[in-house]
Write a structure and sequence with these properties.
mainly alpha; Rossmann fold; 53% helix; elongated
Length: 129
């Protein structure tokens, strides 16, 4: 499909990757086009390095995005919606860089050891009572 569309120079299919951060740093935008997910590690890794991200509304992602404009979500199968958001990202690249920085902050806040530890202690305390 990539060759037929004439976009070989724009698309790289990496397959399985041993060092995700190294590979992610080569990209400009991270697209998660999954049909089914829980809380996808790949997206969190992309957010953690500050990549602008676009994802499908699957699993826990609506809760993770929590109304954040910095993590645009589109319906699974909505190729036109995904392309529209992607075009906005590249058309307004300076805004996209800010979006990536905000996603990094969101990731660091929600997945920090302190935050996760506090949630775990709170859950354990509720179970103990």
């Amino acid at each position: 499909m990539v060759d037929q569309a004439g976009v070989r120079e724009l698309v790289k299919h990496a397959g399985e990757v041993d060092k995700p951060y190294e590979m992610l740093r080569q990209g400009h935008v991270f697209l998660l086009t999954s049909r089914i997910e829980g809380c996808p590690n790949a997206l969190i890794e992309a957010m953690n390095i500050g990549l602008p991200c676009i994802a499908t509304k699957v699993g826990d992602l609506p809760a993770l995005a929590n109304g954040e404009a910095d993590l645009p979500l589109v319906d699974h199968g909505d190729v036109e919606g995904m392309v529209n958001v992607l075009e906005k990202v590249f058309t307004h690249w300076s805004d996209a860089r800010v979006m990536g920085g905000n996603l990094r902050k969101l990731c660091r806040k929600r997945f920090s050891s302190e935050h996760l530890g506090s949630k775990l202690v709170s859950l354990l305390a509720k179970r103990a009572h």
